[in-house]
Amino acid sequence: MTITITAFEKSPDRGRGLARDMRVRWALEEVGEPYEVRLLSFQAMKKPAHLALQPFGQIPSYEEGDLALFESGAIVLHIAERYPGLLPGDANGRARAIAWIFAAVATMEPVVIEREMARIFERSESWFDARLPLLEKRIRTRLGELSAHLGDADWLDGGFSAGDLEMVSVLLRLKGSDLLAEHPNLTAYLARGEARPAYQRAFAAQLAVFTAASGE
Question: I need a surface site. Which of 8, 19, 48, 154 has the fewest CB within 10 A?
Fold first, then answer.
């Protein structure tokens, strides 16, 4: 059965690997499963055909035979459970890896996204300068906790897992920031994730879409 995912026809992140189809691409590259990509315009994302797959009109969606999924975290978890390579073999290790998937998308990512949205949409508001330090304090708290857990380890819990894939994907949103630079072990952790051959293949594939769409 051919796996088909959806992605932006022209990504607003300019091919930097931040759009959430990147996480699905990466997961599929890690497990060695081929896939096809259906590119969508912002208008097409709101049409009935896509809304039947993704009720909120976002990307990515995932189709495999008679299965259709949405939400990148759920898709990555499905891939990790269906194909070997992204979850440990023992039951307890698998459970912990799955917990880290949820930690990335439910604990770490919301505070990072809140800061991003404020910087994009609220910068001209009178209260922006007062609010930004509060948002960054929340991120610093979470990064400090993550840094303390990781310590000198390469990955969050033993070998690389889907939990690391999701956490690295979240930290990419802070790449080059002073917030991340305060924790050298997290900077190194991010670099290890980016250096994985599967990540490199996924990144190149997503960047190629943007480059072709923009004529760069």
Answer: 48
CATH topology of domain 91-196: Glutathione S-transferase Yfyf (Class Pi); Chain A, domain 2 (1.20.1050)
Q: pLDDT tens digits, residue range 159-183? A: 999 999 999 999 999 999 999 999 9
Each domain of the chain, given as residue ranges in start order, spans: 3-86+198-214, 91-196
- CA–chain centroid gap for 19, Å, is 7
H runs (alpha helix) in the chain: 21-31, 48-51, 72-82, 91-102, 109-121, 128-150, 162-171, 178-181, 184-195, 197-214
- Of 154, 172, 142, residue with least CA distance to 22: 172
Q: How far is CA 213 from CA 4, 49, 50, in A?
A: 20, 22, 21
CATH classification (class only), 3-86+198-214: alpha beta
CA pair distance 104, 170, nearest whole angstrom: 7
DSSP letter assigned to residue 107: I
Structure tokens at 16: 């930097």
Calpha distance 10→209 (Å, rounded): 7
Angle (CA) 149 175 93, round 5°: 35
- The model carries a pTM of 0.94
Q: Letter for the amino acid at 187? A: T
